[in-house]
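The records we work with from here on pair a chain with its fold. These numbers are not coordinates but entries in a learned vocabulary of local backbone shapes. To see the layout at work, look at the sequence and tokens printed below.

. . .
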Amino acid sequence: MTTAQIELRHVSKTYEGVEEPAVKDLSLSVEPGEILVLVGPSGCGKSTTLRLINRMIEPSEGTIVYEGEDVTTVDPNKLRRRIGYVIQQVGLFPHRTIAENIATVPELLKWPKAKVAERIDELLELVGMDPEVYRDRYPSELSGGQAQRVGVARALGADPDVLLMDEPFGAIDPITRDRLQNEFLRLQSTLRKTIVFVTHDIDEAVKMGDRIAILREGSQIAQLDKPEVILAEPADEFVENFLGSGAILKSLTLKRVRDIDLDPLVVLRDPVHRGQALTALAESGSGYAVLVDRDNRPVCWINERSLNSSSELAKAGREISVQLQPEDTLQDALSAMLQSSSGHAVVVDGTGRYQGCCTIESLAHFVVGMGNGGTSLETTGRSA
């Protein structure tokens, strides 16, 4: 039986001059390697709970245990160096380079310079940023998404076992947010950190959480369970109202592109003659083909109409601007298909090479299966 990495036992926090506690008699545990998401309406005490865990604020009552130790008995500064912290506003030091920001905690822990430099490069590569390009830049030279990646890298600086994440992707545009969420889940599948993640967005909670705690005012737990269980069996009217409509569509975040059968469609490799392309389309009956380059990377959608408009295939079709990877969710796939001129979504591997297509039919089969009880929400599972 696993031992909880973080445990809150009857924790309350009441601020001076305020009658109602911000957190009231909260008890919960976080298991090693899981993402526990705290979600609820504004003012319910989510962020307060997060700050209590690493003693940015002190509890009025109760006990907080981290790795078997009561955190109120240890030096709070030493405790915080063992716990990574990521916030919505990123909070990078503007006068320090990206490398210096990432090195903050390792330097406080007096790591050797060579080890710090190695860790900086390792983390930049981990979050998909070339160390040679970004190491010496300043935060003002980064986009919002890049700054958020550096914020995650800094939180991982001293390789903490625990990450606290407070609305980490909340201030970023929706497309970048989806990409960062997917990238973070890919990282987590390798790192297996213990994470407490705060959000006000139930869709993000369903996508990110191994378990979700839906909180009422005062951090009172309305329901704490796996996302598929909460979607299938809301505990009460408060939870139902917070979930809103479309539980089946929300469940699309619990399955990934790699979990469904891809449609190969017709693949045309450049260069190809127009006559060959027309014959391949006619024989397939699909209406669309994918033109790929010599390296098997998707270039554009080809159909009979586009073939009749130009003799040069690469110019005849519509550019494939939205691509999926196997780790993306089926909700991402649905969004990509709605943006696609063909109604399909191309799937590529990590190097950008063509793997197949997601189709409306494959998603419809999944949704209908759930509606008929063929695939229950509880058995869909998470494969991040």
